[in-house]
Fold these 4 entries.
Entry 1:
Amino acid sequence: MKKKLIAWLLCFMMAGSLTACGGAKEPEQDAGTESTGGEESSSDAIELEMWCWQSSIHEELVAEVEQAIPGVRVNVNKFNSENMEEKVLTALASDSPLPDILVMDDWISNVMPSADKFNNLLDEPFQAEQYKDQYVEWKWNNAMTGDGEKLIAIPIDAGPTAMYYRADLFEAAGLPSEPEEVAELMSDWDGALEAAKQMKEKTGVCMFDFTKNLFLMMISQQEEGLINKNDEFIGDQDHIKEAFYKAAEFSDYVFGMPDMYGTEWGAAMNNGDVAAYCGAVWTLEMLKNTAPDTAGQWRVTRMPGGPANNGGSCMGIPVTSEHPEEAFEVILWLQNAQNQLIALETESLFPTNLEAVDSPEVVKEDEFFGGQKINEIFVDAVKNVPTQYRGLNYTAFRQYFYDELMLVQDAGKNVDEAWEDALKGCEALKATL
């Protein structure tokens, strides 16, 4: 247990936090609960505690639980999105109290070693297998243990990816500007690199934002990532090496910035310093908020190399809950098709319930993107994301590759040396596990 705790703590310290709901928020309350039930609620109602972070759920829906499920009330306890993972893993390691309903981001992989501390939703009385066909398969599988014997959570939202690009800059570079034409030209990363070279030569503008983001997209497109289902590190294999070297090839054609989606990123998008970026659906609102001067000039198309996912949440029930059946009923109600559509409209949480995904309500014209029905791209992507097992310490291992790619990008480090140093870091981490 001591070694696992060390590994978990390494994971928080080393990994950057990206949430499925659009980035970190200012700290919310860090203790205590805020009731979402009405004042006239019955005093003998079953009270369930939920842990989440800002915008991970639509709280007005939570407030309606007592009407939808009479006799049940949910009290929401919100945490800062950057601290949530640490708080959960620390509680699991120390057997500290957990809520009845726990919202988890894609760091659920780091929770899997403690799967026995969650109700197995495949068992009685839940029998969740009957609901599997209602949700996107890969997202459902993300909450399964590596052996496929336990399901510890039900999907909330997903973070399907696409390529966002400036149609006007593509035209200036002599590149096609219509989404289907761009997707054909940049169908793989080799095609994307050639287009990046032309963009730089013709306009002086960098095609993409930064290399580690491209690396993230490349490894997320694959059936296997850094960890296999036996929780063994496989980041030294060819599929990761090829992604690392390919991302490094873009070093001369990225703007370069210290972090994902920060102030510098927004300024580069607004100023026309970057012609495109690959990212999840939840970056839409960030782009609109940080680059308002570019409204109408952006378009969305399929990402080079195929779809991937970045982010997305789920809900589990710790075994310490005294009311697991009621908690499960609440989760199923919150994540039904109608309510996921409401969450999409209010919180930009892209649905995982297939009825919601296929609803005409999802596909609307967006004036910021020139009237394009951009969600058509994300609907296609969310259905075709590969099922990739991430496993324990995924984010910690990934950080070594990130750090070395940034040195290639910003300091001109030799890519061969960077690759070897990334593997040395990963081996050092393995020695602590």
Entry 2:
Amino acid sequence: MYGLIGKKVKMTQIFNDDGHVVPVTMVEAGPCVVSQIKDENNAGYNAVQLAYGQKSKRKTNKPMNGHLSKSGLETARVIAEFKSIEDFEYKLGQKFDSSIFNIGEVIDVRAKSKGKGFAGTIKRHNFARQDATHGNKHTERAPGSIGQASWPSRVFKGMKMAGRKGSDNVTVQNLEIVDIDKENNLLFIKGAIPGANNAPVFLLKK
């Protein structure tokens, strides 16, 4: 497999062979079940759909229930597609877990970052404060000018302004797998990854 769906557990630290502390993120990698196989004949491209986790049966509608039942599942928390490996025979209901990864392997991790609500330009775009003196009255955190006067008489698209911060899909590249607990399907990934604890993450092999 070229990737796997998992769940962020928490951040912690471990000691390497040199006795140095390494900050790591614990990620539950799978198990994921093959819920659909796509190829050139039925979809026009090659991919494998994986299903991870469970949720309440009453939150799964009938079309999705019928789709998952083909692979022996009743519910799934997350469904995602990954590139399939050529000349590998996938089967519906086949399971993949942390065993597809190796210690020392470098992977990319994609997840949705924490939502921080409506934020000003200082917090959202790292703007500097204005002067707190020299005639400036109570506008220390104001963004300042956002355009011109008579021409072009509009605000350009993409102007950095206050607005919703976070809750975006973020990919962190080149993270090293420091350790693997295969019994519990846990990966110890060096560094931090986006998202809150128990949030779904996508582990992408290079």
Entry 3:
Amino acid sequence: MAAESRRLFIGPRLRRIRRELGLTQAQMAADMEVSASYITLIERNQRPLPADLLLRLAETYTLDLSVFSSGENETFAQLEAALVDPIFSELSVGREDVRDLLSANPAMGEAVAALYQSYRASQSAVMEARAAGGSSPADPLEEAREFIAAAHNYFPALDEAGEETARALGAAGGSGPAGRAGPSGGGLMEALSERFKKRHALTLRILPADIMVGAYRRHDRHRAQIAISEALDQASRVFQAVLQLILLEQGKALDDTVNAAAFDSDAGRRLARAALANYAAGAVIFPYERFHASLGDLKYDIEAISRRFGASFEQVCHRLTTMQRPDRSGIPFFFLRIDAAGNVSKRFSAGVFPFARYGGSCPLWNIHEAFRTPHKIISQTVQLPDGETYFSLARTVHGGEAGFGAPKAERAVALGCEIKHARQLIYAEGLDFETAAPTPIGVTCRLCPRPGCAARAHPPLERRLIIDEHRRMATPFSFAFD
């Protein structure tokens, strides 16, 4: 019986890993020196995965053995979280039932978890549509954001193409200390200039802002040149030059990726393609292997990483949300950028944080405090109403042109992760997560059920308001829980 309990049935997880590696069953079978039908049986959970084959898989594809258990643990956590939903309140379903389901049919467990996540997303969309005043036409920006979120902000083909381009430019470096040798900043601009000239017969020029007439970058086909505004700092100049190179050289890859999804509007598709181009540019400036090695070297010190790659604080934060390669994954981060009024202009997540589609963020989240201490990184432990706890960092960033009197935009960014990953960050050194209580926050006021919040701006959509003119409570709204 003990031997039976150790048998490893992880078919769905193996299938997912195989697909992420871009292999057919026949190709994996050839690598493992087994028959394709045997791989099929394992993926259908009709055969267990033997220990020797597990070790061979890990060695052949350079996989961490933990990847074969993380999927089941994630599904178990999702199903367990679903059980606390009121729709299951009259059913006597417990943890053992979840274990039985995952043991007997893990694929069905994943399907139930995905169905519940879809249900919650639909419920949130309905409530937020009510908050926005009813139904509305397709929102191109939300379409693009949902496209990125569906992929957990990870596009392996673009990462691989980015590393290849970085190697050609001499920017990929290596792993460990040698990984610091790749050019950045001015050196990378020189390499880019040479590539534009040799491959595309284009001249890369830095031009005064008045000649650019408000543009940061312009592909001037008549003069056969790529013009970048000198009003940009060095990191932004490099990014704009790389972005233009991506548009010239990876157009088909961008089209193939975005055309594989369905969009309700052409504007949504075009915005998604633009987001992919920005992603691909980041993959060139921060080649995956070299960047991943730096995360361990520097313990996710964002400012130190910025200096190593000659990039901005915000550019590094963007790249941190994309590190999901199966055999070289980083911490799954989420990212948010707001202005002083609380308007959200960017948000990315590796599938770990439930952003609201509309409305501002919680006023108790310290991203709003960052405006009081410009350019200083502040940290905070926060907890959502569902009990999930996160560690977040916040800091202001500046956008706009350089020079006296030039228009500038001050924004704040937040980068966060689940609390279980926090100890890997240099920012968590010396913090006591065991005894210090996290700050209770919500996704946004209209979706937050927390009572007694003095910072609340709107009543929750799922609760019935209680209006009593003879009593004034400390909180702005009173509501029932029936």
Entry 4:
Amino acid sequence: MTTQEEQESPSVSVSVFAACTELTKPGITKLVTITALVGLGLGGLHYGGLGVWDWARLIVGVGLGTAIASGGANALNMWYESDRDAMMKRTRVRPIPSRRLSPRFVLLFGLGMTILGCVILGITAGLLPALVALLTAASYVLIYTPLKPITITNTLIGAVPGALPTMIGTSAVAPGMGFEPLVEPVGLMLFCLMFLWQLPHFFAIAWMCRADYEAGGFRMLPIVDPVGNHTAATMVFTSLLLIPAGLAPLWITPELSGWGTGIASVLLGGMLVVLSLRFAIKRTDRAARVAFFGSIIHLPVYLIVMVAEAGVKGLLL
């Protein structure tokens, strides 16, 4: 006959596994990993010289290493913000505030995952991609996260570690010695695209969750801008900038880009501009939510079109 502890242990293990998965913020980790692989794919096709085994090694290494390092950084973010998470309705059920995991466990889990991810990147893709991943995690946890309760510029600052993962991929294949691959046009182009996209996306979230952010003691733009003038203007302006950022591949990687990428940039960017203008007129949570979902449509559809067109043209070169 089994004891009660033995009967409960499988469910406890499943619960701990679920909590650890939650620590990694799977949605964010998936986006970060995809953008790193987009950088690898576009950079690899543009710079050339990769064989089948090189592609296989880099795709597996960059994908796995980036995902693990990103998951670790997200866990460290939850560890750092656990006290504030407990004050907010939407985050009080996270593993530490809900007492499903201890702060010490989350800290060790986050550090271990971040280090493991960087080691995998170093072995499979090279030292520079590993350093970019480490910089991404460090700037996210040690700069952006502490600044959230201090300054409304935190969203701009946080967009940097949000955009850096594209360079994990490009730095694995770009030519040059030392840190030269970090200033190659393909990497900078994708960095700018991701940096700009995050701003209307996250300002829409900040508007919808402004009461929660205020309860947690965070300094978000919509909290100090209750009427929404600056929030709306920023969303419209950065949405407009996404159009030329999306058109940049036409002159930076012209051999891989064409009508598909151009049309996707104009249509999707135009859609986000319209939705941001709609928010600027209405200033409602519903309008912000529609703009938020518009941003969710914009990025994956644009990246799919850009990568698909680059892949087809790359095969024909």
